[in-house]
Structures
1.
Amino acid sequence: MSLFLHYLSMPYLLMGIELTLQVTALGLIGGLLLGIILAGMQLSRFWLLAAIARGYTVIFRGTPLILQMVFAYDALPHIGIKLPAVLAAGLALACNEAPFIAEMLRSGVLGVDRGQLLAGQALGMTPGVLMRRIIAPQAIRTMIPAFGNEAVSALKNSSLASVIAVQELTLRSTQLASSTFDFFSIFFASGLIYLVLTGAISVIQLALEWLLDLDRTTKPRGLADYLPWRRVDLTPKPEQANKAAPPEAPELKETPPLALSIEDRARRAATVARNNVAVEVKHLRKAYDGNKVLDGLDITVRIGEVVALLGPSGSGKSTLLRCINHLENWDAGEIRVGGRKLGFDEQGRKLSPRAIANERANVGVGMVFQQFNLFGHLTAKENVAGPLRWVHGMGRFEAERRALELLERVGLSHRADALPRHLSGGQQQRVAIARALAPNPSVLLLDEPTSALDPELVNEVLEVIRRLAIDDGLTMIISTHQIRFADEVADRVAFLNGGVILEQGPAHEVLTNPRHPLTARFLSVMEAERPKDAVA
Ligand SMILES: Nc1ncnc2c1ncn2[C@@H]1O[C@H](COP(=O)(O)OP(=O)(O)OP(=O)(O)O)[C@@H](O)[C@H]1O
């Protein structure tokens, strides 16, 4: 025992720790930098870059680290690169770690919900802002456990540096044992030192996980709660949550139904007819792998007009909305929003993704998605305020004030600090509407805003949209299957089938007296499927 303690505190062994840590740090930092480059190449649109990265991965993942260390130390001098042993070992470890770290980064990036990226693009975020504000924060959280594992494995792999005579812990232990023949005490002491080092990495990993845990309550907890075998559920318990939450505010003020009378409708129609054109779509064609989805579609929407797009599943409603916001490319035809060709310059050349993002923000086309697509790592308030700061350059205070104002308008100011996953579907969709309204869009596109909701949550969302249409006079294009809602709110209904508009006209007229047989058939099927007690 006394010998063991003697070796444990022996300066000769302790100095070996320093070299072990140096090689590990070089390997991890170099591996991270190289891994970022490799992951970027693998995710690149240029196949040559992706192929080079793949080739690198095959070589460095498929050969033993010990050979790579010998190569870095003994072969590089033949091409004039003579590295000190520690640097050669660090370089080899970095090159070996890079493909593993690149895979972690790639899966972290690809793991971020694609819907959130679409929402970010629709809000006018450039690829850089999307990466910094939406992708990286979520990817990093999911990568921490894997990175912890990688750090432990790099620390253990650093012992292979002994093969090129780096005087790290393992080599010093071996040398000491060969001269004293006290193998047991020396290797036991050296094993314990390795355990302490890997334990320190695990503690750092847990601390980072704790710091970045979105569900962490602000109340400090005992350290024991964060030990691996004692991980506790950090989400507030129902009784805590009830205590913490302010009293449930009435979500939407009770108001009389907002449906318009026949006279109101006629007045609205006359006003809208005098307004300028907000959105103009001419002869739009779009196919996916030869499958025609939009087949020469034309539609014009005036400022203040609400158009409901109806049609069977697959008729092209969502595709049309995505094209209007240039989230989707099209094959032929023209789209103008506020007179501007979104996504093209004066000469008709396609703009870069960054320039398209800036144009989207300037032209002001808001979009609400079927699946809400809220940013999962941000609270309701941050979901609304964040894009105002990052895209429109608004100050933090001003952006938060605007976010609270909009959340109040959709009846959710009391849930401003809740994460999306702690909100019901209807509440999430109302936050998504507030987020889309925040930059004062000139046009709001809503892609089946209630399809993903349970029937009892549909009305709270429809009520918000109804107010935007009737009270605020917002220009809206809504793809929906809610026939009664379309009748109450839309000025015009357009019925799509096979990528063209088969019939369009004043909402009430088309819905009560359709002229095209397919429209009539669609409406009667929808009517038959509607639950008897449904409001819309
Ligand atoms: N990214 C895609 N790749 C290939 N095909 C696609 C893609 N997006 C849509 N489609 C196809 O295009 C057609 C139109 O889809 P779209 O989502 O626009 O229809 P929709 O009228 O909105 O339908 P729904 O009411 O079910 O949402 C469908 O046949 C669909 O399978």
2.
Amino acid sequence: MIEVQNLVKMYGDHTAVDHLSFRIEKGHIYGLLGPNGAGKSTTMNIMTGYLGATEGKVLIQGHDILKEPELAKKSIGYLPEQPPVYMDMTVREYLQFAAELKKIPKKEREKQMNDVIRMTGIREVENRLIQNLSKGYRQRVGLAQAILGFPEVIILDEPTVGLDPKQIIEIRELIRKLSKKHTIILSSHILAEIREVCDYIMIISRGKLVASDTPENLENRLKSSRHIELQAKAPVTRVQEILKEVSGIKKVDYRKDNNLMTTAQIETRNAKDIREEIFTAFARNNQPLTTLSLSQTTLEEVFLELTQGKYTASLAEQEIRDDGKEEVTGDGSDL
Ligand SMILES: Nc1ncnc2c1ncn2[C@@H]1O[C@H](COP(=O)(O)OP(=O)(O)OP(=O)(O)O)[C@@H](O)[C@H]1O
């Protein structure tokens, strides 16, 4: 349906989009997620023909957005980061103007305008000048304009930015409703926002696509570095001795909580859940455990890992810490 092929956008010598390729298939809500400045708006502006690319191309239903803009744009509706609303028009005048630009047949215009006005909840402001509307209403007018013509794909750049919580919920509901008949692509720098509405996430960092999958699969990606945490009423050396009897351990990070308690963060080989083996080893040694738990990877960790490498950094830590203050380098503990 949409194919983005090897897209590059340079602003002077700054690379805003760096060899980006992805495909959009019918019937999903795609989320383009990335920190500020990652290149989301630039990508969306190129996809919708607002901006030319330095390299690469965008095909919409097989039509090149630059070479056949009219045919390509027929299938897309776009809400840019700054809604393209004309301040000195009333809402209705502006939608009339947008309907003409979109070449919606005259006899369908009134009905379509009334439909989008109802769907976006702007009936009570339809005869007001856009300059007198609040940010939330202007955003909805921009959204109404994007939906007008009911294109197959609706592209929304940060659609809820600047809205109050009630408006955010309303816009999300509208996006979900629209997704029954339209393919939606929306961008956000907020993970919660994307997770809430999207069934497919594309994570972009420094202009590059670093991951593209369902939220569940993304969470599973880092399961290979799953942790088991245990706490035992014993000194670090005793916990080390017992864990030497357990196979399948890749790495252990020890922390001495006080003279009697030790916490160990265990990374296992192939993300295997070896809690039973650990429990049995401690029982065999007559050593009570106060905690034994499995820590699951969250989407936040995946996002941070892919955009900043933070999670990797935390996994690399291999020290024994005394009350979290004094850091003592351990023996590697790579059992
Ligand atoms: N017209 C421009 N001229 C020069 N640099 C630009 C221009 N537009 C964007 N950039 C730069 O390109 C990079 C990508 O910007 P872009 O707006 O696409 O990111 P974004 O992911 O949409 O971020 P945000 O969420 O902050 O809008 C940033 O470093 C930005 O400063």
